[in-house]
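QA checklist item 7 of 12: single-chain prediction sanity check.
[x] sequence parsed
[x] length recorded as 403
[x] structure emitted
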Amino acid sequence: MTDRSAVDTIRGYFYQFDLSILSVLRLASLDDSVEIECIEDIDIRTATDVTATQCKYYAKTEYNHSVIKDAVKHMVSHFKESLAGTKPKVLYSIKGHYASGQEKLDDGIDVEFLKKHFLTYTKEKVTYCHHIELGLSDAELEEFLKRLSIDVRAKEFDEQFREVVETLQAIFGGSSFSAEYFFYNNALAVIREMSVNAAPADRSITKREFLARVNTSSVLFNEWFVEKKGKKAHLAALRKEYFTELNVSPFERFFLVEVETDSYIRGDLKDLFLELSKKWAKLSAREPSPFCPYIYVHGVPDSELLALKRELSAEGFKLIDGHDFQGADFSCHSIMQRATHGNGIKIKILNTLSNVEQTISSVTKTRRIYQFHLGNCYFEYDNPAVRHVKIQVERLSDVKSII
């Protein structure tokens, strides 16, 4: 597969995923459901009927009847079995986006058109009629057409995506960023997970369950979402949303980061400390309200954190950690002392999550928590007065690209 054809194939997957998301969101009842890749690509189940939908995306291809012929034949075969009672009675839908040629269906489809363009085929120079093979009468084909809808003017890729994001924003509220990075990100993960399940029961979800699984305040690292955005663009968007301020306000900022135990390199964490201090500390003599950030590192051994502190201190990088002397208990008063140009404190290190919680609760100024996690979140702080941003990353180095 060439690179270009691979890109087209991936866009086709995303187009179907986005249509699946829209199909759930458009359900009238919270108890209505969508089934992924059961009878067709998407099965929409309501209290009264089931619609089996086939989805095609050919943005560079002219529409020809042959493009959807196999899909129609498959649906006719299913229809025949439903007449015999061996398959459920359903509605059929084909949605497709094409570069041109849509006018070929403008006059509609009758039985003769159906037989000529969709059910007649040639194999090894022999002509076959699928409806004759199935023993379907014209009256039965007429009934099939009543159950079939074909839309060859389905929305273009980006237009459909915008509709998904706008619909999510209308349901959950918030900004367009939240709609895309929280809700769409999670919706994509839910649909992708369902599509690879073996059992049909595990590929079905109600609107109620879907909305509950999508509703989150965390930016999760979904590799399919990142594939769609591009890793560089993904990290840049997070930086723009959370870490681009023209005038950095003197808030108390807590940066919580997690290290990979199997690939940890001290130099990487040290560089991150220096970068956080450089960007999120203001200590000049002219600064009316000087400040510096707090940092907590999750997953690093105490001995390694101590070694890093020693290394930074030996290089003249002043830090405090809330312990005033050897053997002293942690003191919120100590860690909260003001960083100034005079005392040169450039960073405040919190050794434990208990220290983090105690300090955040003791601070009376505006507080911001930025938690970067590799797997599950490791810290919860339930206080509407404190903004808590949770971002899942693939590796520690991503944090530096974001902040």
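[x] summary fact logged: The chain has two domains: 3-218, 230-402.
[ ] second reviewer sign-off
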